[in-house]
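Predict the assembly for these two chains.
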Amino acid sequence: MVAWPSPELATADFPGLDPQWSRYVDVISGADVDAGQSRRWHVLDNSAELAAKGLTPVGTLLCVHGNPTWSYLWRTLVAAGANPNQPWRVIAVDQLDMGFSERTGTFRRLADRIVDLHDLTTVLGVSGPVVTAGHDWGGVISLGWAVNHPQLLAGVVLTNTAVHQESSTPIPWPLRVALHPAVHGWGTTTSPAFLRVTHALARPALASDVRRAFMAPYKNPARRGGVGNFVADIPVDATHPSFASLTAVAEGIRELSVPALFLWGPGDPIFSDKYLRDLITRMPQAEVHRFEGASHMLHEDVDVAGSVFEWLGTAQLPTSDTTSAPKGLQAAAASSADSETFAPLWAELERRSTETSDAVVDMSTTSDGSSISTSKSWAELASEVSQLVRGLHAAGVQRGDRVSLLVPPGSTLTALIYACLRLGAVVVLADAGLGARGLSRAVKGAGPEFVIGINRALMAAKTFSWPGQRISVEALSPTLARTLGVRMPLDRVRELGSAAASLPAEPGPDELAAVLFTSGSTGPAKGVLYTHRQLSAMRDTLQQTYGLKSGTGLVAGFAPFALLGPALGATSVTPDMDVTAPRTLTAQALADAAAAIKATAVFVSPAAMANVLASAFAVNAAQRAALSDVDLLLSAGAPISTSLLESAAHLMPQAALHTPYGMTEALPITDIDLPEILQAASDAAAGTVAGSGNGVCVGRSVAGARVAIAPLDAQGVPVSDLTSDVAVTGEIVISASHMKDGYDRLWRTQRVSEANSGWHRTGDVGHLDALGRLWVEGRLAHVMTTASGVVTPVAAEQAAERVPTVSRAAVVAVGPTGTQAVVVVVETNPTASKSALATPELAAAVRTAVREVGVEVNAVLVVPRIPTDIRHNAKVDRAALARWASKALAGGRMSNP
Amino acid sequence: MGVEGPCRRTDVQPVKVLVTGASGLLGSAVARAVISAGHHVRTFQRRPSGVIGAEDALGSITDTNAVAQAVAGMDAVIHLAAKVSFAGELAEFEQTNIEGTRKLLAASAGSSVGRFVFVSSPSVAHFGSSIEGAGAGAADPAQAHGNYARTKAAAELLALAADSPELAVVAVRPHIVWGPGDTQLVERVLDRARSGRLPQLGHGAALIDTTYVDNAADAMVAALEHALAAHGQSIVVSNGEPRPVGELVAQICAAGGVPAPRFSVPGRVARTAGAVVEAVWKVRPGLDEPPMTRFLAEQLSTAHWFDQRATREVLHWTPAVSLDEGMRRLAEYYSPRS
């Protein structure tokens, strides 16, 4: 017999657990396995704490742990319950045979455990409204309780759990191992292996005292019986005794209409994204946040309590108050689009479906190095799109299904995009420039039902176990098709399309159209959601801002504008280039593409621009002539230097050079051309226009877009009230009809970004000048707070780059907020061979230069190369650089950053 | 406030201030600053202070009677007298730094003295790891490194323990004081650079805050004037301009007209070597101090710079001389007079 109440608990000092929450409850079991028996439960319950503080809870949060943890997992939620502004009674139970609850000596199955929880809440006098919370197999049990108590239920929280196992797919391998007869008894009960392995899933690793706390109730085999039984109760198939109970829960939750919050650690080898996607189909109303980098022990990895209570405060629960909107500028009228006539992205394609002029042109290089073009007319493109719509539909792609397109830019990608949009499928577009790992993370996060890709992408899909049925763009041998798990080649889809008679109905304007991934230059790439209406608004904004008419010849070297060519009625051509490395685009390839369609407009990324100009000497007369016909050059995605633009003006003398400002979440927001850039620079130098200077001028708002500023406080944190006052530095906040619908499965990120309703917080900092021009000063995350105030990096970097031997500078800060030291990291000409402290002469020159923009420099470090993001080769990860500088300036090692 | 001469302010109530240890670089600067602020100064040390306008009381801080006589009739004390060195026997440090302070506090308590500024050092709360933008921290004799820091830590604790409604005690810790005439840092650096014995420690990037001597002196006057608000506290004072140590050393060398060090020794190696040299020097004392002590190596190879916001607020003081201006003055001091 095991003694209980447990002496371990009575004497323990578990980090984060307040002993006053701990209580024992005797409950008469109603479960079939031991009906009528009295069982002693251990629970954490903050009701005494609430009473002592005179707080009346607005509801009860009922938390259920999984296997092999205990109520300790929920300690941060119990602690957060006694918040005077939002008091909740939080009950975290130790299931019977688990934690510090009684060891019953029975084998309790899922059905028993669901009854157990009901028995307990009855004795505890739990009244509504109740929000259940469950982790691991506790998720199923909490949902079982939820389904059985609709009159009390107000909401559902789930963290890394599952309610359904596809009969066609095996259960996760770690559980297969744990269930193997040779392993099960020893792995789960005799030895603490199962506990140890589970605890080791925490990212970062658990502190030793926390690990001891998780282990405390399971110190010997007698106390671990429940752990083994729990594993043995996993319904591996339909013959398992608990299969029916699990199915009842899985189906029952489809009927739950209460708000739900799913918080997920995508690194979980057991409860992977697959189960999250399944849960989303059952409870589509759920708010979802995937914490990149977190794993199974999500509660230990990230701030679960903060997320849950933030959600409790905002979800439309019976108890919630309405939160007041921040003051200041009112939300922009993004809904004004309702009154306008909506034309879907494919409208122009349909209108021109009989024209024989070129719609899309692909460039390629022959073996002798000469370039050739292949073109498709509008009629051919329209027909191909129509065929693909029908074919994809016949192949099983449903409206609302996500389709990840891993196809290089060109006519095939264009046709697939327009086919998916017309079908109502959601296109998932992530840039190959993210690299294999970044791309994999993005695709897995979006969770597509279908992946259409070239072989290289399908190999990555196989290697990294991406979800979704596979369709190959290239023809495959049966062996390779089998190896890659390809369901059918695209040619088969076309055949299906030819055989199918009618087109499915069009999607509505406010249905989801696309998930576009950010560059990932500032943390893991985020999926950005666009509706059809928002994509159409992006097209219209581009059209209005740049006067792109039907018949324009467009060199599409920059996503996502590249996909808008057909929507604009423009003939588009993709230059021959490696899309994973935009910086390899040459002037010749660009000129050949321009020549192929007599291009008048060129869209390129700044990284590509640099190489185009570097290789400009090699263009021949014909190529030069093609480029001299260009009347619009647009470079977006990252800042571009005036000198680079001036070189571009030599290469394309007729072209107006525009550098719009925007982001994946809304593009473009402002626009500026070269004469305006020069004017802004001279205004800043002369000091004649209030607010000019201190940053990069990105021009005025484009049609339909608005810009405001959320001023920074002394700690560098943006306040909630927006302003459009001149020369006030703060976070740049934007609003536009072509702005994102939201972030994908990043509920918390979306909450932060829409702190001002109807606006998007960009994470950039800047200010407006007296002429309404926006000046970008850097990233919010890179704002520095010195003892003399807030410092933004861009103006200081520009100043440092005026020192003749400095070719590139990044300004970062080290030390605590409010008293940071400013460090200028420079690349020099000639390039340094290794990182070092700057010579006193260089340091003095940089210090003097930067002082001119009002910033005192503490240290100057020279590096061979300042690391930049892979997509643009322009954005400096100043946060990483600051960490590197901090180490060096503390006296630690100085490697290269 | 300058140090050029007795240019008395007229807007303050003059008080009588005892400045101990006024023959040193900082002590004499403090004495002059107090006089400039319009107060009467009596100095107390073994040799004449050389401060124009000050009354010198000569004697040792370890001599109870001499201390009592020096304190007699004073309104305030600024206590700088200490054994300042990177090396030496513990007993000598204890005698001067701890016992000397104890005697001075005892003489002050129950006398006319109402304010007591104890001049301390950030090393009393520096335990070897880097300090980046931190506040003062508590003095700890058990953890401080080197005999100087250990004994100053103990003395600071004694001083703050004596803080009472009758005697307002403030501990002020100026961080690495330098300026024209400085023998502790500037002359050592220049001496060793001249003889080619000055390596750069590590990569030289460790950020170090320092204090130009006039700023430190002004801060002492400010502490005296705001003692009733600041009493009981330890306050770190610096220029608030952290710079890489390699650049500081190079600037000092440039000001002194000596080539800057060209070779470097990894910080960890230097700390170990410093400890060895320190031990050997005890057995065979040379004329000079050891070329490198572990304490010095630590000081010059790890970051130590401080959050000055609270200091400036409580003392109503900001440094008047920037680091670059200080270096200019240092260069002027070393430039050959025409």
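Chain A touches chain B at residues 787, 814-816, 818-821, 836-838, 840, 843, 856, 858-859, 861, 886, 888-892, 894 (CB under 8 Å). Chain A is about 35% helix and 20% strand.
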